[in-house]
Write a structure and sequence with these properties.
The chain has 289 residues and is mainly alpha-helical. The chain is built from ten helices and four strands, in the order E-E-H-H-H-E-E-H-H-H-H-H-H-H. A hairpin with a 4-residue loop joins strand 3 and strand 4 (111-113). Residues 55-61 have low confidence and may be disordered.
Length: 289
């Protein structure tokens, strides 16, 4: 048996709550036995020091990537406004050049546009565009709520990989389940990817969202399918599946802790495989037009 947070350390002690192996640095002595930091209620010793340092970093300079992502999304929307968009309806050259679409004719340019025309950047740029102020606010509030927690748990590098590749998977899903001429925008695919990873981690007893990941996913899926005329079902489902697969890869399919264990070659290859699969699905979709 090895420690779930330090896979290179062998141990003969397991948590009395979840049964995972824990090394001396991770042991927390409780009235009901020895527990891991996740189930100790209150961290002690070296575990307490690490948690306090992480908390200070989160409240001070932590969640940097989440803040930057929110800033980029808001900044792009401000550029759209400067180019003639309104608070209710987006527009402008940046918006037209960046939204996700399979193939359509642009009267202003007098030519076909879309991913089918080789404009592959739309798979990513669309995740930073929003249809209006309300759309932007909803997504950014959700990103701030769950993104900061996920970034704190995974670290900046793993979090940005999760966000971008989930956004790519969401775009692939939107292309696959949307008509070629229907534009799609929004960070929802990436946000659903965060939820998908959180759900996987929750099943592995790592409660990043306090054990509420399943209920949040179910509620958002109900909203998605209820208002499917206004919401990209493919974008949400694609992002959710992509994020869940990335969560499995980062935790090496449950064999290591997503936050403290090393992703290793298997984890990195898994994340890359999700990105390649999203690109392949997008390619096959536009080839079918």
């Amino acid at each position: 048996m090895t420690c779930y947070r330090h896979p290179d350390r062998e141990t003969g002690v397991s948590c009395s709550e979840c049964g995972r192996g824990i090394c001396p640095d991770c042991m927390v002595f409780a009235p009901v036995g020895i527990r891991c930091p996740d189930h100790s209620g209150q961290a002690q010793g070296a575990a307490r020091v690490r948690r306090e340092v992480k908390r200070a970093g989160y409240e001070g300079t932590g969640a940097l990537v989440t803040k930057v992502l929110i800033g980029v999304n808001v900044g792009v929307f401000m550029v759209n406004l400067a180019q003639g968009a309104s608070l209710e309806r987006n527009g402008g050259d940046l918006f037209v050049d960046g939204f996700l679409i399979g193939r359509a004719f642009d009267p202003a340019a007098g030519q076909l546009i879309g991913v089918a025309e080789g404009q592959w950047w739309r798979l990513i740029t669309a995740t930073f565009l929003h249809g209006g102020l309300f759309h932007l606010l909803i997504n950014m509030l959700m990103l701030w709520w769950i993104g900061g927690r996920m970034e704190e748990a995974l670290g900046r590098a793993r979090f940005i990989a999760l966000y971008l590749v989930s956004g790519l998977a969401g775009s692939a899903g939107a292309l696959a389940l949307t008509d070629a001429g229907t534009p799609t925008v929004g960070a929802s695919g990436a946000i659903f990817g965060i939820l998908g990873a959180a759900l996987v981690f929750e099943r592995q007893r790592h409660y990043i969202l306090g054990g509420s990941a399943l209920s949040i996913v179910v509620l958002n899926l109900i909203i998605t399918f209820t208002f499917r005329e206004y919401i990209s079902v493919g974008g949400h489902v694609g992002g959710l599946i992509g994020g869940a697969l990335i969560g499995l890869a980062l935790s090496r399919f449950g064999r290591s802790h997503a936050a403290y264990g090393r992703a290793g070659l298997l984890g990195s290859a898994g994340v890359a495989a999700v990105a390649v699969a999203a690109l392949a699905l997008s390619y096959l979709t536009v080839q079918s037009y």
